[in-house]
Amino acid sequence: MKQNMAIMGSTGSIGKNLINILKKNRDKFEIKLLTANKDYINLLQQAKLLKVKNIIITDKKSFYNLKKKNKNSKIKIFNNFDNLDKIFKKRIDYVMSAITGVEGLHPTIKIIKHTKKIAIANKESIICGWSLIKKELKKHNTQFIPVDSEHFSLWYALKNTSVDNIEKIYLTASGGPLYKTPLKKLDKIKINEVLKHPNWVMGKKISVDSATMINKIYEVIEAKNIFEIPYKKIQILIHPKSYVHAMIKSNGGLIKIIAHDTTMRIPIFNTIFFNTKKNLKTNNINIKILNNLKLSTVSQKKYPMIKLLNFIPNKSSLFETVIVSANDTLVELFLKKKIKFLDIQKYLFELINSKKFLFYKKIPPKNIKDIIKLNDYVRLNTYKKVYKS
Q1: Nearest alpha carbon to residue 356 among 313, 332, 322
Q2: Per-residue pLDDT tens digits for 297-333
């Protein structure tokens, strides 16, 4: 019997990786829904390839272009996520949520009731709205699996382990595209240099976040939320080869090291086939890398973003949305050549230290509207901050 699935954000890197896995197992799956924001050409190609009858394209212009291009097709095209009840007559087996940005939170929460299992690759959803997601997961008895290599590694390693027995969790960071770049050269760094990640094939936004190290800050917040581990028990270590993804030290002295090749195929594959007889062809254990892990602590001079961990409250709050929204806007401005690379961290710290945003540390997220409204407000103030400077 085929598994019914949906992929939200199918034209991004996570979505494409998943589709490449599914192409080799077409007899085992039926894709009920694919979604994208603007890339309607690739979305339509994917739908035809996998014989998908429902697609969602959220950008208005792309939606109308797709409708024109697809006049005689049997594929149903929607412009938003309001028709999920019509698309899914009964609960499906699996959903991949890989929509980027805060925009991914609303559809992620809406689709939970329609699936037995959801794999979430959207950092912003877990950072800004985990309490809302958790509530929906519990309400509908939906299984959750994290997709990020670090969090999937923790999910795998912490099975049947009480968090109370954990002394420390270590998340590894490659150091990003600028790991070997001298400090004095960062002020004049070019966009193409920031986008050249040495280990991973990633989108522009996540490449910039890797260069500033804020992606690791996000992952610490995610780990705290998902596994209910206090910040004081989580540490970031630089590991240039990205072979080890997480380490766990127990109170009894035992250390688990979770390693795999630098490909998202492995965590994605395992969100579907974990604990089954299905095999994924991978490389042999890389003994050379294991013998030369070169682990080190993070330099605050090289990566000032690490200081953000001193600002984040222990309890989930809307302040995390402030950080995410401000950073997203600043990265967008950097990629448009409106600000320099070092301006990202400069403006971010100025914004989160302002009185208008600091008080959000005391306000927990109560609903999606609060998060989306705050996201818009922060983005607007970030633009004002940059263009007034």
Answers
A1: 322
A2: 999 999 999 999 999 999 999 999 999 999 999 999 9
